[in-house]
Amino acid sequence: VKLKGKVEFYSSDFVDLETQGVVYRIFITEKLAKSLNHLGEFCSLHIYEIIKEDARLLFGFKEIEEREIFSDLLIVQGVGGKMALNILSQMSRNEIIESISSENHQFFTSISGVGNKLAMRIVNELKEKIKKKNISINPTSKGKTSNLFLDLVSCLENLGYPSKTSQEICTRVINENKEKELEVLIPIALKYLTKPKVSDE
């Protein structure tokens, strides 16, 4: 299902889309929300619908491949619509596929709300499904992202930073910077960690 309409309102996690006189509230990733420019613009989204006893929830994605990964994540015990959307807000489709394929559950633990047990369930419950689908990812990024993440985390941990903090910072650094060389990303990560707090004075 695909919805096309005019943006009536949007925030960091949803957009109100008006189409043929009806306004639909559609939950979206933070990355998609940041790509919206202004009210009144037209937007086209691939929709995934979750029907509950007391609610009908719509989730929207720019790419149909992203919607498919969202659907796969929902299979995992403990992953609901909001959690799956949270994962897709902080990880790209390529990163999710690569992390599952390489059984790198640690990459998922850097996401808020995803503990070690849930991260392992995501990998264990989806690795065969991903393998059977033979999903392709960008060959230039294959194998690089997860290894880069682990190397960057390791560097910060060796400098004495806590594992959880290191993972959260490394996820931000990799997602927010196009540069994929470890030597370049280390000082960027350290800037994130040492950013001074705003004084009340």
Structural summary, described in words:
Helix 8 (163-176) crosses helix 9 (182-194). This protein is α+β, with helices and mostly antiparallel strands and 201 residues long. A hairpin with a 2-residue loop joins strand 2 and strand 3 (22-27). Helix content is 49%, strand content 18%. The termini are far apart. It folds into three domains: 2-61, OB fold (Dihydrolipoamide Acetyltransferase, E2P) (Beta Barrel), CATH 2.40.50; 64-133, Orthogonal Bundle (DNA polymerase, domain 1); 144-194. It is globular, with a radius of gyration of 18 Å. It has helices spanning 30-35, 64-73, 81-90, 93-101, 106-109, 116-133, 144-158, 163-176, 182-194, and strands spanning 2-10, 14-19, 22-27, 42-51, 56-61. It has a five-stranded mixed barrel. Mean pLDDT is 84; it is low at 137-144 and 197-201. It has nine helices and five strands, in the order E-E-E-H-E-E-H-H-H-H-H-H-H-H.
Task: Give a nutshell description of this structure.
This protein has 201 residues and is α+β, with helices and mostly antiparallel strands. The protein contains 9 helices and 5 strands; from the N terminus they run E-E-E-H-E-E-H-H-H-H-H-H-H-H. It has 3 domains: 60 residues, Nucleic acid-binding proteins (OB fold (Dihydrolipoamide Acetyltransferase, E2P)); 70 residues, Orthogonal Bundle (DNA polymerase, domain 1); 51 residues.
